Amino acid sequence: MSTLARQLIAHLPKTxxxxxxxxxxxxxxxxxLAQRNRITLPYSDVGAVQAAYEFDCLQDxxxxxxxxxxxxxxxxxxxxxxxxxxxxxxADSVHHVEIFFDPQAHMARGIAFETVLxxxxxxxxxxxxxxxxxxxxxxxxxxxxxxxxxxxxLEQACRYKEHIFGVxxxxxxxxxxxxxxxxxxARARQEGFVPVAHxxxxxxxAYVQSALDDLQVRRIDHGNHALDDAALTAxxxxxxxxxxxxxxSNLRLKVISDMRQNPVKRALALGLLVTVNSDDPSYFGGxxxxxxxxxxxxxxxxxxxxxxxxxxxxxxxxLDDSARQAGLDAIAACAGKLGA
Length: 340
Ligand code: HPA
Ligand code: ZN
Prior knowledge:
- It is a single chain.
- The chain has 17 helices and eight strands.
- It is α/β, with parallel strands linked by helices.
- It has an eight-stranded parallel β-sheet with strand order 1-2-3-4-5-6-7-8, sandwiched between helices.
- Helix 5 runs parallel beside helix 7.
- It is globular and about 50 Å long.
- Zinc ion (ZN) binds next to strand 1.
């Protein structure tokens, strides 16, 4: 990798728009919280945790992801988790984050919605002070569970609109089409939540289409399989619907078998508003800048493409116009200073 590319990746201001906070639980913190909360896990040490993180598909990962989050019990645990993530990405020149959380997975274990939200939001407020990182919180519905449960959690969210900006859809994708959640998304939109959804990670292009038409999402999380459908791709370009792609996640979940198959470069060439993100960095082997580096190494992204990806991260973010322009100006200043 050229020195300039290395410096651009390290220093370009960027946002992260596809990040599950429960997926930032590093093995060391997992073991520490298990001990603190007296929870028995099937891992003896950090090496055993890392060795377990071998996945053949999304479901393989989700099984360990739900097991891992069982150590999160108290407000302080959610605070520690979120704080560690912010501290980590401050070092990656991340200026703004849009974070998913999965309250249903915690409520099923008897953890109150308020406990989860209080810990996360306290860390986000302090992260803004300490690192200047702004944030939005997106509450995900678990798509393998019935829509009635999504209504229950939406009711909770309605009490905390000042903290929760949007709703998303995650967990097992195959056989759980977006249209199953049309009614709860309609209610969420009425209540003022901005809608996004995972689609086209393992599911087909038709799920991306359904997320747009049935859920009226403003952004598609992943969206890899949208590129299988030329008419849908043309629509995504025309409407500039952002795709939040996650290269290391795709590789580790075997959505692709080699990083050279990653669609990010092709998506850029097609004029799609594509962004690069980490998804679940602790499980997939890298934070946002590691994703940029892996892409660059596999696909030989040009310096221009690296700058475009950083710009896209601000264009695709749910920021007001002045914050978006400030981010774009900061990118121009950084690129100018580095001579790109
Ligand atoms: N896909 C679907 N659900 C998820 C993911 C993902 O990559 N990460 C956490 N929940
Ligand atoms: Zn995701």
